[in-house]
Amino acid sequence: MHVIYGGTFDPIHHGHLRLAVELRERLGVAEVSLMPCHVPPHRDVPGATSEQRVALLELAIADEPGLTLDERELGRGGASYTAETLRQIRGELGPDKPLTMVLGTDSFAGFDRWQEWQRIPELAHIVVVRRPGPGLEPGSVPARLLEQRAVGDAGALYAAPCGHILELDPPLLDISATGIRDRILSGRSPRYLLPDAVWQEIRRQGLYGA
Ligand code: ATP
Q1: What pairs with residue 166 in β-bridges?
Q2: Is 177 in the pocket of ligand 1 (CB under 6 A)?
Q3: Could you report the per-residue pLDDT of 2-52, keeping only the tens digit for each?
Q4: Which domains does the chain have, with CATH numbers?
């Protein structure tokens, strides 16, 4: 099974990395592919360029063979629409291999506003990671979609190439990229929230106002 975990990663931090490792173990895969987005269509412009974010990601996963980097959304340029990305990956994997994308409850809550969202379950499974916050609005399109497509365990994802939704509730570290950028900008230390090598590179390049 191919598992992709997308995000802005601006910058990558231990919250992301811990989740990636938890996912790898809970989904029973050899690797999880981190996929930074180029121009995020649903959020503010990032604080570092794509190349800078990738350089930080490379440093973060350099000694961890279970985490890989998928740069396809950067290479394509322009807005990154998940349906388009999944179609491309599906083309490479062929029709039968399970493909799974991971997102947080907060993102999934707005799923029906995504470009071509109806196509997405025809291309991949979805793992929804529960995050603190209000959760899904009862009766909303994403809540109904989850009801219709929910499976109880990761094993079910191996039985079909796409179409299932699995909710997971792994332990999450209380770290956000916004909090890290705020600390750096105000001259406080973000140390231990992200890998040391990443923090050193941020300082070396003077990113985020460091
Ligand atoms: P920002 O603070 O800039 O919004 P972020 O830290 O939330 O950034 P993103 O790059 O937006 O990071 O997140 C990528 C993915 O990682 C999203 O699916 C998000 O739900 C998830 N994520 C973010 N922070 C954590 C965390 N501390 N633990 C687990 N998952 C996280």
Answers
A1: 127, 151
A2: yes
A3: 999 999 999 999 999 999 999 999 999 999 999 998 765 555 555 788 899
A4: 2-174 (3.40.50.620)
Which tokens hold the place of 161?
Answer: 């190439």
**Ligand 1: distance of its center to the CA of 16 in Å?**
6
178 by Cβ neighbours in 10 Å (0-12 / 13-18 / 19+) ranks as: exposed
What is the per-residue pLDDT across 40-73, written as a single tens digit (0 to 9) for each? 555 555 578 889 999 999 999 999 999 999 999 9
Atom of ligand 1 nearest to the CA of 40: 11
Q: How far is the CA of 68 from the centre of ligand 1 (A)?
A: 17
Q: Is 37 in the pocket of ligand 1 (CB under 6 A)?
A: no
Q: Is 199 in the pocket of ligand 1 (CB under 6 A)?
A: no
Q: What is the pTM of this model?
A: 0.93
Q: Which residue matches tokens 């360029």?
A: 49
* Backbone φ and ψ of 32, nearest 5°: -115, 135
